[in-house]
From TrEMBL:
This is Peptide transporter. It comes from the Bacteria. Pfam families: CbiA. SUPFAM superfamilies: P-loop containing nucleoside triphosphate hydrolases. Residues 4-182 form the CobQ/CobB/MinD/ParA nucleotide binding domain.
């Protein structure tokens, strides 16, 4: 079982969008997946509840017991944790449970600066686990045709964590499919949005081997 935690204290960075899509993309790829909503606000649970025939199983664990709860409760191929904003104890609990930490950052310097504390926590954990824990940034809500995304990748290199090659673009299809409790991969499986999500899932799978 591999646990992927999508974390960033900053609200609006795209955690829930990426966590729901990543979970669904891994499932479409044939894996047995659980999505854990660690945000007390419950956005991923709200998303799942829209559809009666929701294919992605979602549970809420919004107490700092994620590591323990997953160990005793779940046997899945992948668990994707949708991170909570501004809850240090929940973030620590998710980091402890994770094999891979995905940090979505919007292409803005404010968002990059705001990840400093999280990066410190993640790096401490990487050291404790002798490098077994992996972590990477993903540029989230990138605006197509702008150079800022490339500049952001460069600015992030100061943090000494890799930046994934795949990125998630700002597209109306993300919020509009979310409103229906579904994903861009369900709405248009061959479209550009679905393709960038599958590229993300595949890149993470490769890095987890
Ligand atoms: P977080 O979970 O980090 O707070 P969300 O995934 O909820 O972030 O995203 C915040 C808002 O931005 C939501 O309204 C969401 O629909 C929108 N959003 C997130 N990612 C994208 C994207 N790639 N394109 C367009 N809108 C997005
Ligand atoms: Mg969220």
């Amino acid at each position: 079982m591999k646990v992927i935690a999508v974390l960033n204290q900053k609200g609006g960075s795209g955690k829930t969008t990426i966590a729901t899509h990543l979970a669904r993309a891994l499932q479409i790829g044939g894996a047995d997946v659980l999505l854990v909503d660690s945000d007390p606000q419950g956005s991923a649970r709200d998303w799942a509840a829209v559809r009666e025939d929701q294919p992605v199983p979602v549970v809420g664990i919004d107490r700092p017991t994620i590591e323990r709860d997953l160990k005793s409760l779940v046997r899945k191929d992948f668990v994707v944790i949708d991170g909570a904003p501004q809850a240090a104890d929940l973030a620590v609990s998710a980091i402890k449970a994770a094999h891979f930490i995905l940090i979505p950052v919007q292409p803005s310097p404010y968002d990059i600066w705001a990840t400093a504390d999280l990066v410190d926590l993640v790096k401490q954990r990487i050291e404790v686990t002798d490098g077994k824990l992996k972590a990477a940034f993903i540029v989230s809500r990138a605006i197509k045709g702008t150079k800022i995304s490339a500049e952001i990748a460069e600015a992030l290199s100061g943090y000494d964590l890799p930046v994934l090659e795949s990125r998630i673009t700002q597209r109306v299809s993300y919020p509009s499919t979310a409103a229906a409790g579904t994903t861009v991969n369900d709405a248009d499986p061959d479209g550009d949005a679905a393709r960038e999500v599958l590229a993300l899932a595949n890149e993470i799978k490769r890095l987890l081997i």
